[in-house]
UniProtKB/TrEMBL annotation:
Entry keyword annotation includes Glycoprotein: no
GO molecular function, one term: oxidoreductase activity
InterPro entries per record: NAD(P)-bd_dom_sf, Sc_DH/Rdtase_CS, SDR_fam, SDR_oxidoreductase
Keyword vocabulary terms for this entry: Oxidoreductase
Homology family: Belongs to the short-chain dehydrogenases/reductases (SDR) family.
UniProt cross-references to PANTHER family, sorted A to Z: SHORT CHAIN DEHYDROGENASE, SHORT-CHAIN DEHYDROGENASE_REDUCTASE FAMILY PROTEIN
Domain of life: Bacteria
SUPFAM superfamilies registered for this protein in UniProt: NAD(P)-binding Rossmann-fold domains
Stated name of the protein: 3-ketoacyl-ACP reductase
Amino acid sequence: MATTDRPVWFITGASTGLGRAIALAAEAAGNAVVATARRPDDVADLAGEHVLTTRLDVTDAQSITDAVAAAHERFGRIDVLVNNAGYSLRGALEEWADTELRDVFDVNVFGVANVTREVLPAMREQGSGTVVMMSSIGGVRTTLGGTAYNTTKFALEGLSEGLSNEVAAFGVRVLIVEPGPFRTDFAGRSNRWPTPLPAYDAVLSAARERFAAQDGQQTGDPDAAARVIVEVASGTDVPLRLPLGPESFDGIRARLQSRLSELDAVEPIGRDTSYQPVE
């Protein structure tokens, strides 16, 4: 088994978008990188002295085991896991087939859990590590037409926050990244719409058009985002959450303020539900 004196980053979904940008930024910052994708040819151009490319399908348990084993065989350790693989399912709840909803959960939630479960034992043994969870502004607030995707990211936020409490004692940190819109394939190739239900045309038609129109027009620079992620995850004081981009900061702040207002509004009726003392 080979080793390296460089920190080792293991990245899922590294073929395009933020995953690829993180792989490039991590190597540029002096790290070793394991860049994975469902189709190895999509990351083959990244291979080099300090970059291992390999197949990983987050829905395939054997491919997860093989990819993690390959990382340890090449570099001897994994210091940073970036759970980036995922996609978007849009539309209304009535429009999704059961299989469509289960498929997006398999990738965006269960796939993340399975990869993390495979990497954690070695991190625990070495007494250090960082798990980067690629969530979204959509993990904090919902958008019209985005319910399925939002649901997976809400689940990922809960999984990540709970995990952070479980692994802190072992020196393992969790960083939840919450990007706003960045110029990736998210609104294009990485997005799926179910068969439309005519009853929802009046509700969703404008949302469909807006979502499609942003493809390739997003103001967020994925390379800039990747550099921030690498800097923060490599630091000594890693926050639990890292929003990225002005839309994310503004949107999350507005949602949290709205929730506090809702909490204040219902407190008079919802707070007093305890057993009353017996006199």
